[in-house]
Design goal:
Layout: E1 3-7, H1 16-25, E2 31-35, H2 42-50, E3 54-60, H3 68-77, E4 86-93, H4 110-113, H5 115-124, E5 127-128, E6 132-135, H6 142-157, H7 164-181, H8 188-215, H9 220-223
Helix pairs in contact: 1-6, 6-8, 7-8
């Protein structure tokens, strides 16, 4: 599966969040990180869409929507029929998550405000993925940023219907790779965090497998002869 990340950010060069996300997927050949610029080369943009299986619209939330360049891209580029694709959304938000809920400061969930993109996917006969909102990146700890990098890599790379065990194995493999590659003495803190996350994930996997084995006799098909 090839993924096209379509970044709509008017000040990309000054965005630490966007550069962090770009760095997270730079090692992967199956991910194209594409920053929109004006004027749009519509023919080239259409070629990119046709050559990728998953499209991800990535943008900062501006007044509960995307920057204008993404709307222009949709209007000009998505004029051809290209079914059987996936559409995901990565949205960076400068306020706390609690604001986006009933009774919160905003009063609407992020999913509610992103429904127009779900309607777009439905019209194009695409599979719409659950969105990945990123709240207050600048206030994240190192540990939280590392967890976000893994979530983002999975969002860009993994099949939507992949089994939990496959996702766990992938995460363990990627963390192991990052630990091995982090050799600079200046990154000793980062390496320690990675090793801590790796141990935690491996421990949780073992616990989950033990629980699955314990519950095996109570599966519905065993209980009812299915």
């Amino acid at each position: 599966m090839k993924t096209l990340v379509i970044v709509a950010h008017p000040e990309f060069s000054n965005s630490s969040t966007q550069h962090f996300l770009k760095e997270a997927v730079d090692p992967y050949d199956d991910v194209t990180f594409h920053v929109l610029k004006t004027p749009l080369n519509v023919a080239h943009e259409k070629e990119l869409v046709q050559s990728h299986d998953r499209l991800i619209f990535q943008f900062p939330f501006y007044w509960y929507s995307a920057p204008a360049i993404l709307k222009a891209w949709i209007d000009d580029v998505l004029t051809d029929q290209s079914p059987n694709k996936e559409l995901g959304l990565v949205v960076t938000i400068a306020v706390r998550e609690a604001a986006y809920q009933a009774g919160g400061e905003i009063g609407f969930t992020v999913s509610e405000l992103l429904r127009p993109y779900e309607a777009l996917a439905k019209a194009k006969k695409w599979h719409f993925l659950p969105s990945l909102p990123i709240f207050k990146f600048a206030y994240m700890s190192d540990n939280e940023q590392l967890r976000l990098a893994i979530r983002y890599q999975r969002y860009c790379l993994q099949s939507a219907d992949r089994r939990l065990l496959d996702r766990e194995n992938w995460a363990i493999q990627e963390l192991g790779r990052l630990v091995t590659e982090t050799t600079d003495n200046h990154n000793r803190r980062r390496k320690a965090l990675l090793e801590s996350l790796l141990l935690e994930l491996e421990d949780k996997k073992d616990e989950r497998l033990e629980l699955e084995a314990l519950l095996q006799p109570f599966r519905e098909e065993d209980l009812y002869g299915g």
